[in-house]
Every structure is written in C-alpha cells, then in structure tokens.
Task: inverse folding
C-alpha cells in the first residue's frame, strides 16, 4: 500500500467521525429548538468539529508526507 492509500484510509475514518459528530450536534440543536437548516447561525456549534477535522487531516498529511493541494506547486 502506498502512503496515499494509507492516508486515504485514515481520511475515511476522519470523515466518518465528522459525519457522526454533525448528526449528534444536529439532534442536540433540534431538541433545543435551535436548529435552522442551511443558516450560518448554526456554524458556532459545529466549529469544534471542523477545527478537529483540520487538525487530524494535518496530522495525516504530516505522517505520510503529503502536501496540501495549495502547496503542490
């Protein structure tokens, strides 16, 4: 398996974590009567998910020596 293959497998687990966390936050907001689909007002409760996702993806990139697309040139 190449580094890219290994990184892809790890990325898939991060993606699954993100989807699970998003679902959990949506359900919590719905129970609290605060969920408004598609509105930017929902961004704050989700912020930690995307910060953690980015941190994990940076770790994967570093672990496998993969540069972000904006650094490939």
Result:
């Amino acid at each position: 398996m190449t580094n890219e293959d290994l990184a892809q497998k790890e990325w898939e687990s991060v993606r699954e974590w993100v989807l699970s966390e998003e679902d959990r936050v949506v359900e919590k907001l719905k129970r609290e009567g605060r969920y408004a689909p598609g509105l930017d007002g929902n961004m704050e409760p989700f912020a930690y998910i995307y910060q953690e996702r980015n941190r994990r993806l940076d770790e994967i990139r570093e672990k496998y020596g993969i540069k972000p697309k904006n650094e490939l040139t």
Q: What stands out?
A: Residues 29 and 43 are 12 Å apart (CA to CA). Helices lie at 3-31, 43-64. The chain is about 70% helix and 0% strand.
